[in-house]
Amino acid sequence: MAAQETVQVNLPGGRLSDALIALAEQTGASIGTSDTGLAAIRTSPLRGRMTLRAALDRLLAGTGYRYGFAGPRIVRITRAPRPARAARRRPPPSAIPLPALPPPSPPEPDIVITASKRGIALDRFGGTAHAVDLDEGNAGRFGARGTDAILERLPMLASTSLGPGRDKIYIRGLADSSFNGPSQSIVGQYLGEARLIFNAPDPNINLYDMNRVEVLEGPQDTLYGSGSLGGILRLIPNAPDPSGHAASAATGLLVTQGGGWGNDLAAMVNVPLARDRIGLRLVGYGSNDAGYIDDLQRSLRDVNRTRTYGGRARLLWEAGDAWRIEVGALAQTIVGRDGQYALRDAPPLTRWTNFAQPYNNDYTMGELTVRKRWNRTELISAIGFVNHSLENRFDATGFPGTTGPQVYDETVGITLVSNETRLSRPDRDGLGWLIGWSLLLSENRISRDLGPPGAQVAITGIRNETGEAALFGQYGLRLTSRLNLTLGGRLTFASLTGAPIDDPDDEGEASRMDVWAAPMGEMTWRAGPRLTVYARYQEGFRAGGLALSPTGAPSAAQRFLSDNLGSFDIGLRYGRRGVDRFSLAAAASYATWKNIQADLVDASGLLYTTNIGNGSILSLELDLTWRVTPSLSLEMAGFLNDSELSAPAGEAIDDDDSPDLPNIARAGARVAARYRTQLTSTASLTIDGSARYVGRSRLVAVGPADFNQGGFVNGRIGARIDFGGVGMTLDVDNVGDVRGNRFSFGNPFTLAQGNQITPLRPRTFRIGLDVRY
């Protein structure tokens, strides 16, 4: 290849000698050296579209080596000579020393969407994708906020607001319901290669020491299987570095106006156990979110405090011969002291309840990932083990057929074992082929107790087991020099078993087998050097199961059917975000959704699951960035949605025709600005701010609890001074102290009264400090 021709580069971190060999294979160049010292130097992963010169510049920067071209395709690596020491000269007495200007930064490589499983550059990806990079400074500022930090950046993401660890996430207008039941999650969530959830709410993992968050808009069933109708949210942790020690820490002090004080603390340590072969990375964190809601009946202030603590461990073994083994573990606990809701007819930020309504979310996970490379061919096999426990308590006073104070306790136990093994061989443009299989076994057990405090009795619960085995593959080919076609599909076999528990009239197990195919096809056209146009079609499915029936039904449990969705997308991207001065992405999609599964609350306040009918979603998105000057950049993103429940099932609908799907606003937007300036040769100042508009949506699509929410603007502003190894931050959230309603739900047993709201956290200040070694 010519030195200035751009190609797709995909180099894993490791020894510099191995990286140069892989670079030669991927570019077709001859890269030679006789220096054995290259094997002792570690490099970070390098991915993106770039020239051979740019790749060599990045690989050799700071290593003490240099390169030279002996021909268009011949490169020689040699040790750089040490610079001669210049004689020390004192400046004239009248001279004022000026800070040295920092060297110009090398061009940023293209953003590579690793969630595509083929390492495709964003500007060539045939779908809608988003990447949120988290450097050490931002991870320290926003890591404790977990998923909320991602939602703030990407307006096309939405969630419920029952409380951290109890929320459901939605992408681009695909939402089934506002409540948590046995139906499968609509957005797939992953940590690296391992699956985080199957039929559980968002675990709200702390983002400290995460490298990046990637979001693929759905459906994504061909690559990720059932439970990805809405798309994929993938957390990518920083990998251990076996080449040297490193450590970092971040802490913050928060105060909420009219509420309490909070704090957060996180730390990371990286230890090479065997130099250049085995590395261990440990992360620990804890945070306390201040309460801001008062309970007037119990005369308590700031009752909705939340505490989170946990940690991650990751071991990397470079086993030689291009084998790479990673072992990871995660444990996190979220403790909510009380519910997050207030009442419309009470003074601001207050409510009346008989009891505290606490909740716990205990999440543990283990994972093993094995990788092997042969030139451009890569084998990846990942196994994940999850044990997830959720406990909720609600004030059920007034439950039909009871007298006096009543308490409702719900315990959900989830176990998940998953494996995916795949083999891929992308070409220089990220095309090529991919083939693999996946196995999954999940058990979800819901137990319920109801009665006077301290004397509750068990009422009917439910147990569901799901087993899945799937084969999947994709193949991309180049039709012309500018036109690419990718075809793929997934064949899934699912076994579903369910049974009531604690039911005196136990009807025994119900089981079924499902087989379905999820085809996909996408076409990308490189219309110009910076312009890509794409079209994509994909289908997705969710398995059915057994669920609790609404109160008064003839049976304690009832089946709900599998649902399926087909989506057609078209879009374009101009420029590369973070590389070009101006970039733009626009997309339109239309989806049809059959037999929509939904978790609902009946008139007594108990949860049940059913199919509510068919629906359709039309969505438009726009995302643009503009680097006004080298120091100032602007961002704007927004969406328009038109969703409807077009063919209601049975008697599920009893109000207007074709209502909107729940929790998805018809419009939303975000604008942001960032200014960065170099104060001295070692210190920089960054000022950033954003405003996000959350449009109005409805709590449910069907039933009597048809309440509105949203319709507010939330702004934040912050500043960070970086002194190299030390950073200081000041952030203000909800700058305007807006009293918006995020979510019209907090307690299912008083939901029908229609006066529940979940207010925005009032204006909150955070002062932070982060250090790196």
Task: Describe the protein's architecture and organization.
The longest helix is centred in the first third of the chain and has 12 residues, at 16-27. Helix 1 packs antiparallel against helix 2. The strands form twelve sheets. The chain has a 22-stranded antiparallel beta barrel. The chain has a five-stranded mixed sheet with strand order 10-15-16-13-14, with no helix packed on it. The chain has a three-stranded mixed sheet with strand order 3-7-6, with helices on one face. It has five helices and 49 strands. Strand 8 (112-113) and strand 9 form a beta hairpin. The chain has 773 residues and is mainly beta. The chain folds into two domains: 6-79, Phage tail protein beta-alpha-beta fold (3-Layer(bab) Sandwich), CATH 3.55.50.30; 234-309 and 322-772, Maltoporin, Chain A (Beta Barrel), CATH 2.40.170.20.
